[in-house]
Design goal:
- With 218 residues, the chain is mainly α.
- The protein contains 13 helices and no strands.
């Protein structure tokens, strides 16, 4: 069974990635983390483009914007009413508790900041860690459905692990470095989109010789 570090090295041999989560500001990353909930990135890009078109990708502007207007701008991302409420609540929280400074929130003690994010409406572990890792550039590994699928098929998960169990597995398995965590997460997502799909392409997979799932279907 491969280790977390061995899996990373194997992925690096198979894929070359650059600028995987493009954004012009940490706040844009944070907004994207909300919008990407239960949708694909193409829909998020459309919603972000709408916000940019009216020059509304600003914490204070979003906090004060009429909710109906915000809903229509982010409509392409799906669940737009729920996401608009959550996003506006987040913006108002940063204004009220951190003087409008996202940096002030994200650069405090890592676990303290993570717990603070998790206490906010609409922010679960995946969204919190996405904001920390990509907006705050803090070493907090992101676990998503691709991660569970990939590690489960490799035989490293039983399916009973919690989110934090899997996050700890990664954070104990490789050096706690922001660039490494970002790259590793991006590699897993890319591999699962290209090969380890819901219906996997095991015959072309670079992990076929060490994957429990591939050995069972061979």
């Amino acid at each position: 069974m491969p280790t977390i570090l061995e899996i990373y090295r194997h992925l690096c041999q198979g894929y070359c990635l650059d600028n995987w989560w493009p954004a012009q500001s940490p706040f844009e990353v944070a907004v994207g983390a909300f919008l990407t909930q239960n949708t694909n990135w193409n829909n998020v890009e459309k919603a972000l483009a709408n916000l940019k078109q009216v020059e509304a990708l600003d914490l204070r502007l979003l906090a004060d914007m009429p909710l109906v207007q915000l809903e229509q701008l982010i409509r392409p991302s799906g669940f737009f009413r729920q996401k608009a409420q959550r996003l506006q609540h987040f913006c108002r929280y940063v204004l009220d508790q951190h003087g409008g400074s996202l940096e002030d929130l994200l650069q405090r003690d890592l676990e303290q900041t993570r717990n603070e994010l998790l206490a906010l409406s609409g922010i679960g572990p995946e969204t919190a860690d996405s904001i920390l890792l990509y907006a705050g550039r803090r070493p907090s590994f992101v676990v998503d459905s691709y991660t569970r699928r990939f590690l489960g098929r490799l035989g490293l998960l039983t399916g009973r692990e919690s989110y934090d169990d899997i996050r700890t597995l990664f954070m104990a398995g490789v050096n706690q470095e922001v660039s490494l965590y970002q790259h590793y997460h991006a590699l897993i997502v890319t591999h699962c989109k290209e090969c380890c799909r819901k219906t996997p392409l095991c015959s072309t997979c670079l992990f076929a010789d060490i994957c429990d799932y591939a050995s069972q279907v061979a």
